[in-house]
Write a structure and sequence with these properties.
Elements: H1 2-29, H2 37-42, H3 44-82, H4 84-89, H5 95-108, H6 116-128, H7 138-144, H8 151-164, H9 171-180, H10 182-187
Helix pairs in contact: 1-3, 3-5, 3-8, 5-6, 8-9
Length: 188
């Protein structure tokens, strides 16, 4: 059941990522670069477009991190499933499964769209207690953090998208302007 839910979530996230990437691509194709910078300072509407582009890039980043987390949950469920027989015979959690089980327990409180994880958490706590909490995958935890992206990361992602779609776009001049213009710094 969890695998089906994750697949549905994965498809939804992939389609959202495609939509966001296409939006960013359109904005980059329509010269969201240093050539439009003079209009950007004089035209608040263009600043709004830049803000939308940056927000889309941030949403893409968040989406990518969450997708990575769902993939890890999927892989962890498969690992636990393949080790179910030895797990049921031992009181101790097998070393191979500690990270997977601990991360699934951690994820149970954070992924409401996977109610099966709460059931698994109850089972794992009954069997192993909280002794495996320190084994939560650090990359998983980091991917769930909602730290704001820096302008540098956003610009790098915009450049990656431009390269991926064959758009000749130079982020350096826009980058310079983003860090020096008080008008843009207020919004971005």
């Amino acid at each position: 059941m969890t695998k089906k839910r994750i697949e549905i979530i994965r498809r939804k996230r992939n389609s959202m990522a495609k939509f966001l990437r296409n939006d960013v691509t359109d904005l980059l194709r329509n010269n969201l670069d240093s050539n439009t910078y003079s209009r950007l300072v004089n035209n608040l509407g263009t600043v709004v477009i830049l803000v939308i582009c940056m927000e889309h890039v941030e949403q893409l980043y968040t989406n990518r991190n969450l997708s990575s987390c769902y993939d890890f949950v999927d892989q962890s469920c498969l690992l636990v499933l393949t080790h179910l027989s030895p797990m049921s015979k031992r009181r101790e959690c097998p070393d191979k499964c500690k990270e997977a089980i601990s991360t699934l327990m951690f994820a149970a409180a954070r992924f409401a769209d996977l109610p099966e994880l709460r059931e698994l958490r109850t089972i794992f706590v009954e069997q192993y207690g909280n002794s495996i909490e320190p084994y939560v995958n650090p990359e998983f935890v980091n991917n769930l953090k909602a730290d704001p992206l820096t302008k540098a990361i956003k610009l790098r992602m915009m450049q990656e998208i431009a390269t991926q779609y064959g758009i000749m776009w130079n982020s350096k001049s826009l980058e310079t302007k983003l860090y020096t213009s008080p008008v843009v710094q207020v919004y971005v």
